[in-house]
Design goal:
single chain; alpha/beta; Alpha-Beta Plaits; TIM Barrel; 2 domains; 8-stranded parallel sheet; 5-stranded antiparallel sheet; 15 strands; elongated; disordered N terminus; binds phosphoenolpyruvate; binds manganese (II) ion
């Protein structure tokens, strides 16, 4: 029996989540179909239609698989799928290659450097140090998004040229933040990967301006953004021409002030293992204290992060911004050595209702 069906909307707390529906042919064995769905990593809830029709509602937190896989299961009559709000993001594949680095490849991608580019000497010293420790991207802010107008705001354009020169001298690539539309051309000329800061994730005019450069983007999650909003900000960037998006979890606001932010490792696992997206973690801004950067970095990689972005400083006590969370160069070396031994392995999802999915893991 073939039957057309609209996607169902499942009420789930305050949210409405759209689920995919799989309808069965008359006489099909529902247990076997449900087992096949589970084997593919899908969370399926049985639907008993009033007219005797049988189907399954596939929950949105299931593994993402091609529709043809579902249509190919014996006994399946039709599959009704909702239109995603972020189709370009959904179509992204792993690994993502950016300036010679593979996000989602064999090894985690390391990005490190000071919060702010403070002088040509400072950034050159840091870059020289990092070149020997397997780091791919030199980070450093020229334009600093600060909560207080009295805090150091960055050296602006001169800092961009110090950053580029230091990176080129030591064979590194550059990731740095564009804070305003006005700064985009200069940042795009300097950066191999343009950072969108947490405070700007919702700034659609800035997202557009950055995307129009065609550069890849490191998209930090807004500190109060839902995962869906984060993904849609990624969609914004891809829609307007960014050549790729690396998602960066850097901690969200919580009720608890004991740490600077709350690192949402659940979102990291979700992006990596369910959405199959390149997601990295910033353990520095997540906690705001250097003594907890290494344990958090390990946890991030275990959860599925494909890279880390870490703040370091030659004299953390003298840093012009974010000193309390900056690692010393030696402490960073210890972390980098540990990370090099960490192979993230293949993405995997094991829903409660199934064995480990038996089919090869797809890149959508
Ligand atoms: C930064 O990377 O220095 C920064 C300001 O980050 P965030 O946008 O995560 O606060
Ligand atoms: Mn910082």
């Amino acid at each position: 029996m073939r039957r057309a069906a609209a996607p169902s909307a499942v009420a789930c707390g305050r949210y409405r989540i759209v689920a995919m529906i799989v309808w069965l042919e008359t006489g099909a064995d529902p247990q076997r179909v449900q087992q096949e769905l589970a084997d593919l990593g899908l969370w399926a809830i049985r639907l008993d239609g009033a007219d005797g029709a049988l189907g399954f509602s596939v929950q949105p937190w299931s593994r993402k698989v091609p529709l043809e896989w579902l249509e190919g299961i014996e006994g399946v009559a039709s599959v009704a799928a909702p239109t995603s709000t972020h189709r370009l993001v959904d179509a992204s594949t792993l690994p993502l290659e950016v300036a010679g680095a593979e996000f989602g490849g064999e090894l985690p991608v390391l990005m490190a450097g000071p919060c702010s580019v403070e002088s040509a000497e400072q950034i050159d010293r840091v870059a020289g140090h990092l070149a020997a420790s397997g780091v791919h991207f030199l980070r450093g802010g020229a334009f600093k998004p600060r909560t207080s107008p009295y805090a150091f705001q960055g050296h602006g354009e001169p800092a961009l040229s110090w950053l580029r020169k230091a990176a080129d001298t030591h064979g590194l690539k550059v990731v740095t933040e564009a804070m305003s539309e006005a700064s985009v051309p200069a940042v795009a000329e300097t950066a191999d990967l343009i950072q969108v800061g947490s405070r700007n994730m919702h700034n659609s005019a800035l997202l557009q301006a950055i995307a129009h450069t065609g550069k890849p983007v490191l998209l930090k999650r807004g500190m109060a953004a839902t995962v869906e909003e984060w993904l849609q900000a990624g969609e914004y960037l891809l829609f307007h021409g960014a050549s790729g998006v690396v998602f960066c979890e850097r901690g969200i606001r919580s009720f608890d002030a004991s740490t600077r932010n709350l690192l949402d490792l659940g979102a990291v696992a979700l992006l990596r293992h369910v959405h199959r997206l390149p997601v990295v973690v910033d353990p520095s801004h997540a906690l705001g204290r250097r003594d907890l950067v290494a344990p958090l970095a390990r946890a991030a990689l275990a959860a599925g992060a494909v890279g880390l972005i870490v703040e370091i400083h030659p004299s953390p006590g003298q840093a012009l911004s974010d000193g309390p969370q900056a690692l010393s160069l030696d402490d960073f070396d210890r972390l980098a050595a540990e990370v090099k031994a960490f192979a993230p392995g293949m993405p995997r999802v094991t829903p409660a209702a199934s064995e480990t999915p038996r089919r090869a893991s797809p890149h959508r």
